[in-house]
Amino acid sequence: MSIRPILIHPDPRLKKVCDAVPDLSDELRVLADDMLETMYDAPGIGLAAPQIGVIQRLIVLDCVKEEGAAPQPLVMFNPEIIRSSDDTSVYEEGCLSIPEQYAEVTRPAEVGVRWLDRDGNEQERDFDGLWATCVQHEIDHLDGKLFIDYLKPLKRQMITRRMQKLKRERARL
After folding, report:
1. Domains identified in the chain and CATH numbers
2. Between the N and C ends of the chain, which has fewer C-beta atoms within 10 Å?
3. What is the mean pLDDT of the chain?
4. Which of 137, 124, 131 is nearest to 51 (CA)?
5. d(CA 15, CA 80)
6. Cis omega (within 30 of 0) on the bond before 79?
7. C-beta separation of 26 from 44 below 8 A
8. Is 169 a catalytic residue?
């Protein structure tokens, strides 16, 4: 397994709509393992393939944050939200592609998701709480949408400028 570099906004690859994964290969399973390793190393609770420059519908997540609790990594190929609640919740979201920036985002409080697991089996599950927020955030990435796209234009531009500055600073290192 290897840790992959995470793209920083603004990067055109983060705004692309991803292609469906046609069929699972060992290469894609290795990619999923690399993504989990990258996510845990960052550290984060979710990562989408476009964040490492792969324009395919693959996300990984693990929202277990309690100290000493067993990890519960989820790998989702071609995830899709098939139902969502009318109730909403507000979470302060962040993103590994937009480091050190956080903002409150309102999303459905509960969602039902269908996806293929790493063995190609179709799975379906309902999520709530942090898991619901995270899975929606990651699926947004597959559609070229970032959490800052939910913000007012001024706040979004301010965060984008900070990221441009961060990328310039990193380029000088």
Report:
1. 12-172 (3.90.45.10)
2. C
3. 96
4. 137
5. 18
6. no
7. no
8. no
Q: Report the amino acid identity of residue 122.
A: E
Whether the per-residue pLDDT at 1 is higher than 80: the answer is no
CB atoms inside a 10 Å sphere around CB 3: 14
Cβ-contact 90, 75 below 8 angstroms: no
Other C-beta atoms closer than 10 Å to the C-beta of 114 total 15
Given this model, what pLDDT does residue 137 score? 98
Q: Quickly state the pLDDT bin for 34 (edges 50, 70, 90).
A: very high
Name which of 145, 148, 136, 144 is nearest 18 in CA terms.
144
Supply the pTM of this predicted model.
0.95
Q: Which of 67, 80, 122, 138 is flagged as catalytic?
A: 138
DSSP 117-169: -TTS-EEEEEEEHHHHHHHHHHHHHHTT--GGGGS-HHHHHHHHHHHHHHHHH
